[in-house]
Amino acid sequence: MSSRRADDLHALLRDRVLSGELPPGTPLREEALATEHAASRHTVRTSLAQLVAERLASSAPFAGVRVASLDDDDVRSLQDLRRAVESEAVRLLGARHGSAWPADVVAVLDERADALERAVAGAGGEPLAVLREHAALHEALVAAAGSPRLTEAAAALGAEVRLFTAHLQLHRTPAGLAKQHRAYLRDVRERGAAAVHEHLAASQTALLGGR
């Protein structure tokens, strides 16, 4: 039961971080969170450890746990890692299929683009859905390569990718996000890793340039 309680609290705190309710740098104090959520200190400690593992929070000796700031160096290193994983997945797909990817792969990616489009259309009521569906689309692209290790690596970045997108949306609206990603999915089939590099470089520039 305590494990389930910790998971529930982790999910709640994660949403508060991603929504901006808990801004970057906010201290996450065990005692205060335990009181606020009627939870044990152990439950809170476990939940915070999960946030730190996802890089949504940072922990330092004598400084405690704080909401991650995702500074410029963090953005660059995250995008470097995403580029490596996603480019390799697209390279594998191209090596096997050229630009004519299997119909079932294309169908899955189209479904993810549809889900992102629906999330964007309803973003006024559920902005976290945009973050979730954007990350899911990129994870599905990597999973299409059929490499368990690449799929695992992409999934491990999921929460941090959502945080990146949340920061990015502070500087631009999500209105064109679905259309942009439909174009991206077509582009990677035609141009492979070069399209991945351009796509991720553009979002990195938009975030760093908008600060």
Task: Describe what you observe in this structure.
This protein is mainly alpha-helical and 211 residues long. The protein has 2 domains: 2-67, Arc Repressor Mutant, subunit A (Orthogonal Bundle); 72-210, Up-down Bundle (Four Helix Bundle (Hemerythrin (Met), subunit A)), CATH 1.20.120. The protein is 73% helix and 4% strand. The protein has 10 helices and 2 strands. The chain has helices at 2-19, 30-36, 41-53, 72-97, 103-121, 127-143, 148-156, 158-168, 177-191, 193-210, and strands at 57-60, 64-67. The chain has a two-stranded antiparallel ribbon. A hairpin with a 3-residue loop joins strand 1 (57-60) and strand 2 (64-67). Helix 6 runs antiparallel to helix 7 (148-156), helix 6 crosses helix 8 (158-168) and helix 9 packs antiparallel against helix 10. The longest helix has 26 residues, at 72-97. The chain is elongated, with a radius of gyration of 18 Å. It starts with a helix and ends with a helix. The mean pLDDT is 93.
